[in-house]
Each structure stands twice: as structure tokens, then as C-alpha cells.
Amino acid sequence: MSPFAIFDWFARWLVTSVFGLDVESHLGASIHFFFYDVPKVMSLLLVISFAVGVLQTWLQPEHVKRWLGGRKTIFGNILAACVGIVTPFCSCSAVPLFIGFLKGGVPLGVTFSYLISAPMVNEVAVALLWGLFGFKVTAIYVGFGVALAVLGGFVISLLRLEKWVEPFIWQIQAGNLEDDGSQPQMALEERIRLGWASSREIFASVWPYIVVGIGVGAGIHGYVPAELIVRWAGPQNPFAVPIAVILGVPLYANVAGVLPITEALVGKGLPLGTVLSFTMAVTALSLPEMVILRKVLRPQLLAVFIAIMTAGIIGVGYLFNTLMT
Predict the structure, then answer these.
(1) How far is Cα of residue 140 from the mean position of the Cα atoms in its chain?
(2) How far apart are CA 141 and CA 245, in angstroms?
(3) pLDDT > 90? residue 125
(4) What integer pLDDT is reported at residue 13 of this predicted model?
(5) Cα 149 from chain centroid?
(6) Cα 241 vs. chain centroid, distance in angstroms?
(7) In the predicted model, what is the mean pLDDT of residues 3-19?
(8) What residues contact 212, with CB distance under 8 A and at least 6 apart?
């Protein structure tokens, strides 16, 4: 029995007993979608963000700088991509830490691995994906996201593009890297308290996006004809993945608002790889993120980053579609 069966029962009871509707009707399907997904996603978000919040008590920014500093091999890219999983989930909040890593002496390619991973693969994405699509899809998405972050950063390392970072970054002294890394030992009870506080903070910041995203998804699920969506972006269109990526780049939304819409589109017959490519483009190549990055990167490096990410996300979309068929 699914652990979320109680939410399905509750949503069906609301539709049939409270609203007096058929679950298969347009409005009934929309209401069921909304009241099933909201408690399911919220509960998973609280649990997973609490676990990550506890983990973050062992992960201090200065320690991360020290671990990543000087690591120019692919191991540094792997470590940075993994760090991105448990740090800020919004691309615009990840950028300041990206700048701090550069100022602190972390190699450029390693820093890019962090920047790619942080908005795409994080506790919010894992909670939502697990709740909406199950463990298998979540594991594949996380694997592809980390691989894209590692390879993207490694390619930038090989190209040696440091000359295209704005000069003022290199002129700033690396701060606090001489810190010996010692810190008072924290009791488990304190770590749990901080983890719960982090979970509440994340929940408070993203729940409106989740509710709005699920609301939009509910409307798509109940009212948008599946045939219309599949005709333009279904598996028969070989260009659906790059079109989805191109459409996603100018938009900005965090993963909490995008994934519920992704679920509705998949339910209408779109290939999962196509809609997840759209999601990756929105979260990792958003226009606001590019504007912020332009303050520290010259246009040439920004163009290389966008090209690598666009090619990688398109490749991931096609691979995902192939694996899930």
C-alpha cells in the first residue's frame, strides 16, 4: 500500500462527498489533483528538508572553500556538484556563494560544477520528484543532474577560461581560508533543532510556489486537452526537447513551482525527458541568473557556460526519454 494512499482517499472523498462531483469530470479531476498533491508534496518536503538541514550543520561555507580550494582534478568537480545538492536551491541565491568561492580561490571549473548542481539537484527537487514521480525517476534525475554539473565544470576547467572572469574577482583577497576549521562540537539535540528550523524556513519560503504550481498543474490536468499538448511536444516531434529548453531559458521559477506543472504535462502524454529538460532550463539557465553572473563573468565565458549547459540539458532530455520508454 502506498504511504500516500490516505491523501488519495481524502482527495476522492472531497470530490465525491463534499463537492458532489465525478472524479473523472474536468473540475473533479482538477480538485482531486490539487488536494492529493499538496499534502503529499508538503509532507515529503518537510521530512527531506529536515534531514538535509541536520546534515548542513556539519557543512560550513569556510570548510567547503577549504575542501574545494586547489582541487583542479575531476574529483573537485564531483565534490562541488555534491555540495550543490545540500546548499541553496534557487539559482539566484546560489550565485552569491559561487562568487564567494571564486574570491576564496576555488578553481573556476570546480565552482561552475557547484553553480550547475545547486539549483537543479537539491532537497526541494528530491522531495518534489519523489512525491510526484517516485524513486526511480528521482534517482535518474539526480544522477543526470550531478553528471551534467561534473562534466560541465570539467569542460570549463579544460578550456582554461579564467581570463574571462572580471578582473576585480582576482584582486580581492581570499578571506578566511587560513581558518583552521575548528569549531565547537555541537550536540545532536542542537543539530536536530537547527535542522527543524532550516526545514521550517525552507517550507515557509517555498510553500506558496508549490501551491500555485500545483494549482496550475491541476488546471492543466483537468481542462487542457491531451491531444493538443502531445501534437506540439509529444514523442513524435524530434525537436520537442530543444524547443522545451529554448522556451525555459527566458523564464524564472524555482523548482518548487515548476515540478508540479511538469507532473501535469507528463500526465497529458509529454515524454518525461522533454518536460524535465524544460525544468532544468528554467532552474539552471534562468535569465535573472545570467544577469547576476554577468557582473562577474565576461560575455565570452557566459556564452560558453550557456552553450555547454544548453547542449547538456538537451542531451539529458533525449537520454531520459530513451531510458523511460
Answers:
(1) 13
(2) 16
(3) no
(4) 94
(5) 12
(6) 18
(7) 89
(8) 257
Per-residue DSSP letters for 144-159? HHHHHHHHHHHHHHHH
Nearest to 110 by CA among 142, 144, 158: 158
Virtual torsion, Cα 227, 231, 237, 239, nearest 10 deg: -120
* Euclidean distance between CA atoms 90 and 209, whole angstroms: 12
Backbone angles phi, psi at 208, to 5 degrees: -60, -40
What pLDDT score was predicted for residue 31? 92
pLDDT at 221: 72
CA R_g for the chain: 21
Q: What is the mean predicted confidence (pLDDT) over 295-306?
A: 87
Q: What is the pTM of this model?
A: 0.67
Cell 492543466 sits on residue = 220
Nine-digit cell string for 77: 568537480
Beta bridge partners of 165: 297
Instruction: Measure the CA–CA gap between 191 and 137, rounded to whole angstroms.
Output: 30
Decide if 206 contacts 124 (C-beta within 8 A).
yes
Give the pLDDT confidence of 250-276 residue by residue, as tens digits. 665 566 667 777 778 787 778 888 888
Alpha helix locations (H) across the chain? 5-13, 26-56, 61-68, 74-85, 91-103, 108-120, 123-133, 135-159, 167-171, 188-223, 226-233, 240-248, 255-267, 272-284, 287-293, 299-323
**How many other CB atoms sit within 10 Å of the CB of residue 91?**
26
